[in-house]
Design a protein that fits this description.
Structural class: mainly alpha
Number of helices: 5
Largest sheet: none
Distance between the termini: 62 Å
Helix content: over 70%
Shape: elongated
Radius of gyration: 22 Å
Number of strands: 0
Strand content: under 5%
Number of domains: 2
Order of helices and strands: HHHHH
Length: about 120
């Protein structure tokens, strides 16, 4: 009887641990759309985007997050990953410059400088 109780206790702890581990991984892995939505909202709070700008920024960020998701799966020292991340970031900046007004873009750039500090 004591052996069965020990075995069942071990199995129960194992499954509880698995559930906890799965819950943590689910929190860390958001969809590209969810990440883009959050970033769009933050940018809207910063530079007061119009509805059209929000839509365009969201599309750019979803595309970037999807590409980044694939690149992150690669090894950090991989040249292709490094070049890919650089290309995606440049494409985002290029699109932001087209979508935002000069004043908005200047505010956005200033926020990037303060975030790096």
């Amino acid at each position: 009887m004591k052996k069965y109780f020990s075995l069942l206790s071990f199995i129960a702890l194992f499954f509880i641990g698995m559930q906890f581990s799965t819950a943590q991984n689910a929190d860390r892995q958001q969809s590209p759309e969810a990440i883009a939505k959050q970033k769009t909202y933050e940018l809207h709070e910063l530079v007061n985007l119009t509805g059209g700008q929000q839509s365009a920024i969201f599309k750019v960020l979803v595309d970037a997050e999807q590409n980044m998701g694939e690149l992150v799966k690669r090894d950090k020292s991989d040249k292709l990953r490094q070049e890919g991340v650089k290309t995606v970031n440049e494409r985002v900046e290029e699109n932001f410059k087209k979508i935002l007004t000069p004043e908005q873009y200047k505010t956005y750039q200033a926020s990037l400088v303060t975030d790096k500090k």
